[in-house]
Amino acid sequence: MRSSVGTHVCPLTAGNVDVEGAEVSVEPCLAAVAAGDGRELWQSLPNGQISNVMGKKCLALRDNAVSDGGSVVLMDCDQAAKAGDGSSIWETQGSGVATKKGSVAKGSELTFSFLCQGN
Predict the structure, then answer these.
(1) E strand or H helix at 52, and its extent?
(2) 51 and 45 in contact (C-beta within 8 Å)?
(3) From its phi and psi, is residue 48 left (phi > 0), alpha (psi between -120 and 50) or beta?
(4) pLDDT digits (tens, 9 = 90+) for 32-50
(5) Considering its fold, how many domains does the chain have in total?
(6) pLDDT number for residue 79
(7) What is the pTM for the complete model shown?
(8) Which domain holds residue 12?
(9) What pLDDT digit, counting tens, does each position of 52-85 carry?
(10) CATH number of domain containing 75
(11) How large is the C-alpha radius of gyration of the chain?
């Protein structure tokens, strides 16, 4: 998954906000909001996870690898945390930007905006 914060994109799951293992991609915020299914509603949890407000699933990096853009999926938050591999832990900034760095995961870096802040 690659994203530019300047384009105001946010993660979504094609409406599958409560489906375990659903692949997450990016979409312009206006399109995500227009879908009306909550795919644009995310929250940063105190433990570093990012959870969908509607589906209660967390973003996790498949195989904990960011190489080739990485693959982000939805996982049960408790199970992902219990795995202890850091795949569901993200560095977040107050602006809604999340980053997974190579020092935590295999590869280089993955950055995206998880809050819709504009068009």
Answers:
(1) strand 50-52
(2) yes
(3) left
(4) 888 888 888 888 899 989 9
(5) 1
(6) 94
(7) 0.78
(8) 5-113
(9) 888 889 999 888 776 666 788 899 999 999 998 8
(10) 2.80.10.50
(11) 13
Which amino acid would we find at residue 91? E
27 vs 22: CA distance, rounded Å:
15
Q: What is the mean pLDDT of residues 17-26?
A: 86
- Answer whether residue 119 is part of any domain: no
Residue at 118 is within a domain: no
Amino acid at 10: C
| Secondary structure of residue 50 in the 3-state scheme | strand
Written as six digits, the tokens of 21 are 């293992």
**Residue 72 burial class via C-beta count within 10 angstroms: exposed 0-12, middle 13-18, buried 19 and up:** buried
Residue type, 1: M
Residue 46 resides in a domain: yes
- Reported residue count of the chain is 119
Residues 20 and 32: beta-carbon distance below 8 Å: no
Give dist(CA 72, CA 25) in Å, integer: 7
Residue 32 lies in a domain: yes
